[in-house]
Amino acid sequence: MPLPIKLFEIADVVLKDPETEVGARNERRICAVNCNRNAGFEIVHGLLDKIMSLLEVSWSRKKDSVGYYLKAANDPAYFPGRCAHVICHGTIVGKIGVLHPDVLGKFELSNPCSVLELNIQQFV
């Protein structure tokens, strides 16, 4: 298959929520994947910057409650040290990083992938 492979989707995600009458709720999310010979983290980071710019949310150099920034995170689905929460106005709204080789193997992918997932519910 020719590289790079770039995927992008905006869709509703159903989450369990015992606080609701039906036991579930929907969130609108954006997901993007870049798969190439190298991880291409800068591609999905650039996409994050563009999305936030379109939503009129600025980068927070001070990492405070104004704007958005990245904060290191640990998630076994991601390569160690290559995962971050996307924090906007003090709230975690997503995750960005490079997928762990074990995850790639389960999907029979032989090239590294960088991914971005954002909850955009608060913006729509």
UniProtKB/TrEMBL annotation:
Q: Which Gene3D superfamilies match?
A: Bira Bifunctional Protein, Domain 2 (3.30.930.10)
The molecular function terms in GO held by this entry are:
phenylalanine-tRNA ligase activity
Please report the stretch or stretches of sequence annotated as the Phenylalanyl tRNA synthetase beta chain core domain.
5-120
A single Gene Ontology biological process assigned to it is: phenylalanyl-tRNA aminoacylation
Stored Pfam families: tRNA_synthFbeta (PF17759)
User: What Gene Ontology cellular component terms go with this record?
Assistant: phenylalanine-tRNA ligase complex
**What's this protein's name?**
Phenylalanyl tRNA synthetase beta chain core domain-containing protein
Q: List the source organism.
A: Phyllotreta striolata
